[in-house]
Amino acid sequence: MHIALWLIAVALLLTGSALWLWQRAQQRTRQDVSAAFVNRQIQGMQQAQLQPQPQGANEAVPQRQLTTEALRNFFLRAGIQHPSGKLYARIIVPGVILTLLALIFGGWLSALGTVLLYAMLAAFYFWLKTSKMQRTMIRQLPGFLDTLVRLVTIGNSIGAAFQTGIGSTEGPLRIILERANRQVQAGVDLEHALRQQATIYKFKELDLVAAVIGVSARFGGRSDLVLERMAAFMRDLEHAQNEMASLSAEIRLSAWIMGILPIAIGIFLIVFNNNMFVGMWLDPIGKKMLIGAFMLEVVGGYGLYRLAKSI
Fold first, then answer.
1. Which of 43, 90, 147, 282: CA 20 to 30 A from 120?
2. Which residues does 170 contact at the CB level (< 8 Å), separation at least 6?
3. What's phi and psi for 80, nearest 5 deg?
4. Closest of 152, 185, 311, 163 to residue 242, by C-alpha
């Protein structure tokens, strides 16, 4: 009976994270599937023709490829170009060690809380790296567009200007542009190459640039003027966003703290003082209080998350 109650408590605890991640997971799945499909068409078509596989294996390989591709794209968005076994070891080994220590000194409930807390910290770390990389790319893109406009104005085509402008770009934006340039050299249209990289990195501004380049390639027109105005608009938008972020920093910080702090305190109590949690769960009134607090935390955390993201 006690084991069933613990399992129910664990299920309720995990439901909060599932509800928070559900919306983003749906969009990420669609984007990863699209990116994986394009990559398979570009890179794996010849190998698939030269090395046919049995019918049963053809169904399992795409699923493995999608999983591997999604994991690789996750690390790409965090600025890690070539994830290796050492990286996975640095992520997994500390969590395993902490979990074993919690299991030895605090029991299986402390070990479960340690796993949840470590997973939250790891996800938060990679989220910070991804956000920092996104901000850097958005800040660099107007400068690259200015270079592109100058090269087009003096008579270069969009494709030639793109290849020449990569040399004057630095940081994470150059990595994305070089990846797109390699696809162009392999025979992919510049528009499709940029769109694929924008999908992988979730870089909406680059997708807009790809749309302008695609329209210019199909219908002609003064693409340099459009790109110039786009660069100016991006600078104005970045300035407005920075100003808005400065004015709303206190509100967003309060929302994050109010949403995360109760979860962190609950997991901390489970890890270091699980007897208190067990005592509350065994008490009928305490059980109702824990369930009610969990449901309120899910609803309030989701509302605060939407509030912080909308400002």
1. 282
2. 140
3. -105, 110
4. 311
The answer to whether 279 touches 285, Cβ cutoff 8 Å, is no
The span from the CA of 298 to the CA of 293, in Å, is 9
Size of the chain in residues: 311
What the chain holds in terms of domains, given with CATH numbers, is 13-42+63-125+247-310 (no CATH), 134-238 (1.20.81.30)
* Digit-coded pLDDT (tens) for 178-230: 888 888 888 888 888 888 888 888 888 888 888 888 887 777 767 778 888 88
Nearest to 209 by CA among 224, 189, 187, 194: 194
Contacts of 230 by beta carbon, 8 Å cutoff, 6+ apart: 145, 208, 209, 212
For residue 46, the model assigns a pLDDT of 41
Q: Quick one: average pLDDT of 58-81?
A: 71
Compute the distance between CA of residue 43 and CA of residue 50 in angstroms, rounded to an integer.
13
Looking at residue 210, what is its pLDDT? 86
Taking the C-alpha atoms of residue 277 and residue 109, their distance in angstroms, rounded to an integer, is 10
Of 169, 177, 217, the closest CA to residue 196 belongs to 177
CB pairs under 8 A, 24+ apart, for 86-95? 91/122, 94/118, 95/119, 95/122
Q: Write the CB contacts of 223 (distance below 8 Å, at least 6 apart in sequence).
A: 152, 158, 212, 213, 215, 216
**Averaged pLDDT for residues 276-305:** 80
Distance between CA atoms of residues 164 and 182, nearest Å: 13
For residues 156 and 192, is the Cβ–Cβ distance under 8 A? Answer: no
pLDDT at 4 over 70: no
Q: What is the pLDDT of residues 219-230, one digit of tens each?
A: 776 777 888 888
